[in-house]
Amino acid sequence: MERQRVGFSTYLFLIPGVGFIVLFIGSSIFITITQSFGLFSVTGTSQFTIDHWVALLGDRESLDSVLFSLKMGFLSSAGTILFAFPLALFLRKGGTGKRFLASLVKIPLFIPALVSAFLIINLISYHGIVNEVLVALNLINRPLRMLNDRFGWGVVGIQVWKNVPFVLLILASSLASIRDDTIDAARNLGAGAIQILAKIFIPLAMPGILVSAILMFIKAFGDFAITSVAGPVYPPSIALRMRNTASLFQEWDKAAVLGVIIILTTLVVTWLYAKLAEFVTGGEG
Amino acid sequence: MSKLVLEELTKRFDNIVAVDKISLEVAEGEFVTLLGPSGCGKTTTLRTVAGFYKPDEGRVKFNERVMNDVPPVKRNTAMCFQSYALFPHMNVWDPHMNVWDNIAFGLKMRKLPSQEQKKRVSEALGILSLEGMEKRKPGQLSGGQQQRVALARAIVTQPDILLFDEPLSNLDAKLRVQVRVEIKEMQKRLGITSIYVTHDQDEALAISDRIVVMNQGRIEQVGDPQEIYLRPRTSFVAGFIGLANIFKARILGFEGNLTLLSAPFGALRVDLGRSYPIGAELDLSFRPESMSPWTGVGGNKLKGTILHAIFMGDAMDLFVDVAGHRLRARAGSAARIAAGDEVEFSIPESTFQVLE
Predict the structure, then answer these.
(1) Structural domain count, chain A
(2) What ipTM was assigned to the predicted interfaces of this complex?
(3) Has residue A250 been placed in a domain?
(4) pLDDT by residue (tens digit) across B48-102?
(5) How many helical (H) and strand (E) elements, i.e. helices and strands, does chain B have?
(6) Domain-located, residue A24
(7) Residue B153 with chain A: CB contacts under 8 Å
(8) Of A85, A177, A188, A280, which to mutate for an interface test with B (greatest number of B Cβ within 10 Å)?
(9) How are strands ordered across the β-sheet holding B325-332?
C-alpha cells in the first residue's frame, strides 16, 4: 500500500493535543529534571551539581518516604482490585436491581479525594462513628486507631473506598468483552464455577486487571491529599515530602529530585506493565 | 450415546413463549436438525438440552433419565458454537490455551490421566485433520480450522449428545459445504446422537437423518429430508424449505385415481393419494422444478407468458404468468427462453401436495 502523505495542515491539527503535552507537561518535566541537578534553580545560583541527589539518596527520611509511597501504591492497587473484581463479576449481567447497585457504587467517583478522606475520617477516626458504636456496644474497651496509623492502613482503606468505582469501570468493560459462548463452552465441557473463574474470567480479564493495577498504583504512589489527612505522622508520602521540602523548607532543588523520583518510578512501573501485558496476551492483544 | 426425549417442553422468557410444548424423540446415533427462521425456538430448545436454560414445563430425558435439574457440567453433552467459542491464548498461567489445550480442556476438567488425555487429543486431531497445528494459538487459525478445533474439543470428551448451534454460519459458502460434509462423516463414524440447529435449509437437507421444522416455538413437521422437501405438510414448511408455488383449489370431481381441481390458473388433474369431498377447498403446493417446458407427454399442460428468465448456471429460473397468476418454473440451462415468450409447461399429476 502506498503511504499516505502527511501534509503540513495535518500537523497543525495536532497542535492542541500534542502541543499542549510538549509545551506544558514536557517543559515542566524538563525543568524538574534540570532543577534536580541545580540548573534553572528557583533559589540561589544555577549551577550543575549532583549534591541534591546525593543528599536525598543518603537521607533516611527520604528513603522512608519512597518506601512508604511504594507500599501505599502496591497495597492500594491490590486492595482496590480485590474489592472491585468480585463486584464487577457480580454486575457483569445486568438486572434491574444490579443496575441500581452499579450506579450506587459509582458515587465515590464524583467525590474529590480530599473530601472523601474527610468523609471517611468521620467514620473511622479515634472518636469517629465506627469507634463510638463499637465502644457503645461494649465490643471494644478503647477506640481502635484506624487513622494516622503508623503502617498506613487508613490511607489504603480510603484509597480503596475512593477508587473501587473507577477500577470497577475498567474491569466491567474487560469482563463484558468475554463472550457468553466462551463461558457456556467451558460449562458445557465440565468446568465448575471456580474453574470458570480461574480459567476463563481471570485470565481473559487480565489486561483490564493490569491496567487497573497500573493506574491505581500511579494514583496511590503519587497521592498527596489522602496521606496528608489520614496518613501516619512519619513517614510522609513522597508527594507530601516534596511539598514540604519545596514550600516549608524552600528547598526547591531537592523537591525537584523527589519529583524526578516520582516520574521515574511511574515510568518504570508503566514499562513493566507494558511488558507484562505483552507477555500475558502472548503478543496477540 | 443417548436417546434424547423431549416431552411437552416449554420455555418462556418473561411473557414470550420461546418454545411451546414441543415433543420429540431422537434415537441413539441419529442426526436430527432443528430448522427454522430466527426466533422460532430452535436455539432455545438446543440450549435447554445442554442445560443452559431450565424448562418451564415438560421434561428433557437422556435415555430414561430426566435431566431437568442436572447442571450443564454433568450432562455430558458437547456443544459447537457459531462463534467457535475457543478459549483465547493468555499467558496467565498454564494452560496457555493453544489448539492442544483447547481440545484437552474437557479432559482436564474431568481429571483424566495425562496419558489418556494425550491419546484422545491425538485421535481427535487425526479425525479432524489438525495434525501439526497443536501448538498454534486460536487467533492464528482460519475460521474453518477454528471450527474444526471446536469440533475436536467437543468429540474428545466422548459426549452422549453432540449439540451444534449454527456452527457453519461464520464460514464462507464453499467452506461451509466442505465442513458440513466433515461433520456428517465424523458423526457417522463416531455414531454420537447429534442435534443440529440451523436456519439454512440446504445445510439441513444435506446433513440430517431427520429434520424438525420449527416455527414460532412449535414443531411444524418432522421427517427425513426427502419427506420434508417433497411432501411439506404446511404452507410454512412448503414456503420455508426451497421454493414453492402455493395456491387454493376447489375439488370438481374424480377421474379414476385422479382428482379434478379448479385452480386460479386453470383446471388440474392431480394425484392426491386420498379422496376429498367434491366442492372442498384445499391449499396445495408444488415445487418449481415440477413445472417444466412441455415435452409432449403426460401431466397437466399449462400455457404461460415468461415474466423473467434467470440463468442460474445449472438451470433456468422462470417467473411465469399463467392466466394472471404468477408461478415459478424451471427449465434446463440449455433452454432458449426469454422474457415475453409464450411457453407451454407441464406439471406431473403426482407432484401436488395438500397443505394443512
Answers:
(1) 1
(2) 0.80
(3) yes
(4) 999 999 999 999 999 989 999 999 988 999 999 998 999 887 766 555 688 999 9
(5) 8, 20
(6) no
(7) 185, 189
(8) A188
(9) B292-293, B342-347, B300-311, B315-322, B325-332
